[in-house]
């Protein structure tokens, strides 16, 4: 069903084949329905510092590390990057607001997909720009037996966050597989861009309010409207 898209990917990267042995999952918006809380927290924190920011911008910047997001805003508004103190103050405020937003539930049907991937014997990684301890710590609670700490790349593991390819290249190195042996599942434009830059087959699941064309424009090889669609079609992609 997806033969044309897969063959196009192979040709574009000059790879010998496409045979998945590992699946790299983004976290916010892919595993947890948490992006709405991140968006709210960013908007409120930045407005308290008299910095204009919208929820739409939060979704467009999803995947960046907190420091990178703050730098982007400061460059736009003040023509300079934020100081370390400014970054710490804003990110601490954002994190504090985030913790008051409530508990993020699982994205519908993502556990079904994870169990299917695990049953196939594929490696499972989390690759996230998030530094929220509560979400990272809740992986085992919400997805028991699925994730291993040594197979996580978070904001604390990288110098350059998404859209730089570093997070996915680090996961690739840890997984000890070839680029044509990986499927990435993302929901964010910058995450898609990061994965594509790392040379990986990227599936965009549009769980947020963005136009799906934004994901395609940033390099997604396939687009699904929700996780159930991806679950139903998984074997046609990674059998």
From TrEMBL:
Keyword entries, A-Z: Hydrolase
Gene Ontology terms for molecular function: sugar-phosphatase activity
Pfam family, one: HAD_2
Membrane-spanning segments: none
Protein's name in the database: HAD-superfamily hydrolase, subfamily IA, variant 3
Key word Hydrolase present: yes
InterPro entries for the chain: HAD-like_sf, HAD-like_SPP, HAD-SF_hydro_IA, HAD_2, HAD_sf, PGP-like_dom2
UniProt-listed NCBIfam families: HAD-SF-IA-v3
């Amino acid at each position: 069903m997806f033969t044309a898209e897969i063959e196009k990917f192979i040709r574009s990267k000059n790879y010998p084949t496409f045979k998945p042995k590992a699946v790299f999952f983004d976290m916010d918006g892919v595993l947890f329905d948490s992006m709405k809380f991140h968006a709210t927290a960013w908007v409120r924190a930045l407005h308290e510092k008299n910095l204009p920011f919208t929820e739409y911008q939060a979704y467009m910047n999803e995947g960046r590390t907190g420091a990178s997001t703050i730098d982007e805003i400061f460059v736009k508004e003040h023509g300079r990057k934020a100081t370390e103190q400014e970054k710490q103050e804003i990110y601490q405020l954002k994190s504090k607001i985030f913790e008051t937003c409530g508990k993020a539930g699982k994205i519908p049907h993502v556990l079904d997909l994870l169990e299917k991937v695990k049953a196939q014997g594929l490696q499972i990684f989390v690759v996230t720009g998030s530094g929220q301890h509560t979400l990272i710590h809740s992986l085992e609670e919400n997805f028991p037996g699925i994730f291993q700490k040594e197979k996580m790349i978070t904001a604390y593991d990288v110098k350059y966050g998404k859209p730089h390819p570093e997070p996915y290249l680090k996961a690739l190195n840890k997984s000890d597989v070839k680029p044509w042996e990986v499927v990435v599942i993302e929901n964010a434009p910058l995450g898609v861009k990061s994965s594509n830059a790392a040379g990986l087959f990227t599936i965009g699941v549009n769980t947020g309010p963005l136009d799906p064309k934004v994901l395609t424009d940033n390099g997604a090889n396939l687009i699904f409207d929700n996780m159930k669609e991806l679950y139903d079609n998984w074997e046609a992609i990674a059998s």
